[in-house]
Amino acid sequence: MKHNQSEERSVRTLRVGEQVRHILSEILQRGDVHDETLASHMVSITEVRMSPDLRHATVFVKPLLGKDEEAVLKALRTNTAYLQREVAHRVKMKYAAKLKFLADESFDEGSHIDQLLRAPKVARDLGESED
User: How far apart are CA 28 and CA 109, in angstroms?
Assistant: First the structure.
């Protein structure tokens, strides 16, 4: 029976991505990064997507309450070298993954849809269809 390598690889990328997410969350939660902006903001690492070769990690972040998102992203990007070293040290891989930090826009999209559904005109139209 032939082994499905692509399926195995995708499970591995998901597993490593989740491992990296936990490590970054722990580092930020403990305040290991000596940065004023990161020390004064709670930052959620919502997802980490690994490239198939595990050399690149796209890290999606969201500051608590969405406050100062640009400042938080800048601070994370400034401290990327330190965070990459820490991740490389804790995840046993052949290569240290290059981290790329992006804002997680999925929360904003959900809020926008919720606002649209609550708009008086839409609510009125939805109410008529239920009768």
Answer: 25
35 Rama sector, left if φ>0, alpha if ψ -120 to 50, beta otherwise: beta
Q: What is the pLDDT of residues 44-102, one digit of tens each?
A: 999 999 999 999 999 999 998 778 899 999 999 999 999 999 999 999 877 889 999 99
Residue 67, class by beta-carbon neighbours within 10 Å (0-12 exposed, 13-18 middle, 19+ buried)?
exposed
- pLDDT for the residue 2: 44
d(CA 92, CA 19): 10
What are the residues facing 61 on neighbouring strands? 45, 103
Tokens of 11: 């499970």
Cα 121 to chain centroid distance, Å, stands at: 35
Higher pLDDT, 65 or 26: 26
- The structure tokens 């790329």 sit at 100
